[in-house]
Every structure is written in structure tokens, then in C-alpha cells.
């Protein structure tokens, strides 16, 4: 009886240690984002970036879908699906293009597209998605993927 009780206590302690260690580990990519894992290099707009933007910014939220109401300021759905249109979209507040490859290829961390999804641009209230929509933002690896895509020259 004493051996059985000792075994149960040791087993319970081991299970507790394993569970607490699992809670500290990196949880990886959330399941809803698993289909949008951006590679570390050779990133393609049409294979990697566009499908993610369409799902997370277009059809999922409706903000940049075909039915978007505010046509004057918002990035349009047609700009989400066309690389050149997306990059050349000008922000109403600053007039900056989302990606100016001549400037941002060597400094992708300064590209408005990257800054908007990272922290908001030109200020924090302009972060996408807006906090008040209560939508899940892009995962940090997806945001890093956008930056890397720009740094690689924003390939098709």
C-alpha cells in the first residue's frame, strides 16, 4: 500500500511539472492562423501575403471587402488582390504609399504597410485591425513575414 501511494504521489508531481512547463512554452502559431505561415525567405505576394490579407483583412472582417462602405479612405478590396495597387495605395493622412520599394527595400521596418499592422501608422490609433472591432490581429510571425517580403523587394 505504501509503495502504491508513493508511486501515485511521484506520478502526480511529475505530471504537475510537465503541465507547468508546457504552460511556459511558446504556443506557436494560433490554429486559425496555421494556414498563413509565411516562409523565412523567398516570400511571394500572390502565394503568401495576398491570401493572408484577403482572409484577415478582406473577407474575415469585411473592412476591406467588396462591400466596404467608406470608399474614400479605406484600402479597397481590389487593392488587396493586386500587388502594385496595394503598394501604391496612398494614406489619406500622410500621402505616403504603403510600400515605396525604392525607399523601403533597404528599410522595410519603415514601410507604412508594416507599421500599420505592427503598431499603427501614423499613430497607434491607426493600427489594423482597429481595436474597437475586436478582431484578432495578424500573428507576430505574419507581421514579420510582411516586413521580410518588403525587404526582399516585394516579389510577386
Question: Main traits of this protein?
Answer:
globular, 156 residues, mainly alpha
SSE blueprint:
Elements: H1 2-24, H2 45-59, H3 77-80, H4 83-88, H5 101-104, H6 112-118, H7 140-151
What does this structure look like?
- The chain has about 160 residues and is an all-alpha fold.
- The protein has one domain (about 40-150).
- About 45% of the residues lie in helices and about 0% in strands.
- It has seven helices and no strands.
- The longest helix is centred in the N-terminal third of the chain and has 23 residues, at about 1-25.
- The radius of gyration is 21 Å and the shape is globular.
- The termini are far apart.
- The model is unreliable at about 5-30 (pLDDT under 50).
Mean pLDDT: 79
Distance separating the two termini: 69 Å
Number of strands: 0
Give Rg in angstroms. Answer: 21 Å
N-to-C SSE series? HHHHHHH
Cα shape: globular
In percent terms, what proportion of residues is strand? under 5%
- Tell me the domain tally: 1
Derived structural class? mainly alpha
Q: Largest beta sheet, briefly?
A: none
Give a short synopsis of this structure.
The chain is mainly alpha-helical. Helix content is 46%, strand content 0%. It is built from 7 helices and no strands.
Amino acid at each position: 500500500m505504501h509503495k502504491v501511494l508513493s508511486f501515485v504521489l511521484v506520478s502526480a508531481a511529475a505530471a504537475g511539472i510537465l503541465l507547468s512547463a508546457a504552460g511556459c512554452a511558446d504556443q506557436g502559431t494560433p490554429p486559425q492562423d496555421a494556414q498563413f505561415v509565411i516562409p523565412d525567405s523567398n516570400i511571394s505576394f500572390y502565394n503568401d501575403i495576398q491570401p493572408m490579407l484577403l482572409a484577415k483583412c478582406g473577407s474575415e472582417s469585411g473592412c476591406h471587402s467588396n462591400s466596404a462602405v467608406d470608399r474614400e479612405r479605406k484600402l479597397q478590396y481590389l487593392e488587396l488582390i493586386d500587388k502594385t495597387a496595394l503598394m501604391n495605395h496612398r494614406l489619406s493622412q500622410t500621402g505616403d504609399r504603403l510600400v515605396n520599394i525604392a525607399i523601403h527595400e533597404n528599410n522595410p521596418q519603415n514601410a507604412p504597410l508594416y507599421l500599420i499592422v505592427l503598431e499603427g501608422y501614423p499613430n497607434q490609433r491607426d493600427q489594423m485591425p482597429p481595436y474597437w472591432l475586436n478582431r484578432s490581429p495578424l500573428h507576430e510571425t505574419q507581421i514579420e513575414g510582411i516586413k521580410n517580403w518588403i525587404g526582399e523587394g516585394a516579389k510577386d
